[in-house]
Amino acid sequence: MAFEGLTGRLQNVFSKLRGKGKVSEDDVNEAMREVRLALLEADVNFKVVKEFVAKVKEKSIGKEVMDSFTPGMIIIDIVNKELTELMGGSQAKLAKANKGPTVIMMVGLQGAGKTTTSAKLAKLLQKQNSRPLLVAADIYRPAAIKQLEVLGEQIKVPVFSLGDKVSPVEIAKQGLQHAKDNGNDYLIVDTAGRLHIDEELMEELRQIHTEVNPDEVLLVVDAMTGQDAVNVADNFNTQLTLTGVVLTKLDGDTRGGAALSVKAVTGCPIKFAALGEKIDALEPFHPERMASRILGMGDMLSLIEKAQSNIDVEKAKEMERKMRNAEFTFDDFLEQMDQVKKLGPLDQIMDMIPGMGKMKQAKDLKVDDKQMGRIEAIVYSMTKQEKQHPEMIDHKRRKRIATGSGTNIAEVNRLIKQFDEMRRMMKQFSDMMGPKGPKGKAM
Ligand code: GDP
Q1: Spatial separation of the C-alpha atoms in residues 130 and 264, rounded to whole Å
Q2: The whole model's pTM is what?
């Protein structure tokens, strides 16, 4: 996940500040020197770093901050606000056409993730009850059309294509007409990329632009390329006037320099972030939430949104009832793991929980997807009866389960012990709460 290094370093700087009852100007200067280094190491554009640090310093060396009881906290808050500003302040939403389909032109260099992102965006719009149409206008990259068609099929979004013998401008034009005729409210045009920016490519993009008059021109850039991505964005923007940037491969970007520089350098807001190869790994970009993640303060809002759109509320309620009544079985346990998995890779979810990111680093917690797979294998190796009545699983059965799941008896023991403890805790908790809330003293 992005920003790992940066988060760790910033947290060190701030824990030093927080430890102080009083913060002097020297302390602030020292902290800002470290923030500067941390940002440069994260590959943030040096001009951006300079301005950022100057702003934070100016706001931190005020009388109110120095004299406050919690100067460290106030400075973190200042950094949080400035980081948010740096990435655009508030969420830059997708434009919507007043009349007819909203036209989105996807542009970018080859390999940045344009085709994948086009399909991801279609899926996101479809989830919001829109009816997007994808247009395959990348006729040069071998298999780009096929790739879009396969993705379209997978998400049940229609793909308009005229093969690779018709000009991209013509494809885009006919695609738009097709959307109008079929009542599609979004048109996503996947254009051709190149290995490098060249005049021929820009000319073609300008012609498509003139033909379809897009509401959005979204540049797809690979976050892992850091400052190169920022330069590409700057270059495209001067030649084509972008309306937004999509950062891809943030899942593999440990530094985060592109995310932190692109808005400040180009003036173009980041509208979406892609965090994986899977088709639903695209999120609207929220600067304030991203700032919070960078500072290791988690991102509960995104987590709740993910939960709302992925988790079956009725099932969750039923699960809660079972837990309260200590009826929870290994079958329910499996189902719950399934629900959690729908939220995305475990380490990304952990990063959204305040404090978890840090704990994960410090303790080297092993709650990765592989570990989840082993736990599942153990449960799958239980018989139907064993899952429903875990108390019947004796030593002999445990040995059989370990062999069947390709794990070892220690792992099986551990899981059953944890499961028992969980059930006992739930029981105690629900006894304590009673049917109508906490017993005893008012809280
Ligand atoms: P295009 O040439 O710009 O159309 O690029 P593609 O859409 O074909 O993507 C290039 C490669 O990047 C593919 O292997 C994608 O699966 C991968 N990719 C795209 N977005 C992401 C992302 O957010 N995370 C990761 N890990 N891989 C991605």
Answers
A1: 32
A2: 0.76
62 is in an annotated binding site: no
List, for residues 167-216, the tens digit of each pLDDT value: 999 999 999 999 999 999 999 999 988 777 788 889 999 999 999 999 99
Helical (H) or strand (E) element with 132: strand 132-136
Torsion angles phi and psi, residue 183, rounded to 5? 70, 30
120 Cβ inside 6 Å of ligand 1: no
Burial class of residue 284 in the structure, from the number of CB atoms within 10 Å of its CB (0-12 exposed, 13-18 middle, 19+ buried): middle
Other residues' Cβ atoms within 10 Å of the Cβ of residue 269: 20
Q: Is 249 touching ligand 1 by the criterion CB < 6 Å?
A: yes
Q: Is the CB of 382 under 6 A from ligand 1?
A: no
Is there an atom of ligand 1 within 6 Å of 352 CB?
no
Mutation test residue for ligand 1: of 105, 106, 116, 145, the one with most atoms within 8 Å of CB:
116
- Report all structural domains of the chain as residue ranges with CATH numbers, in order of start: 4-86 (1.20.120.140), 102-297 (3.40.50.300), 304-433 (1.10.260.30)
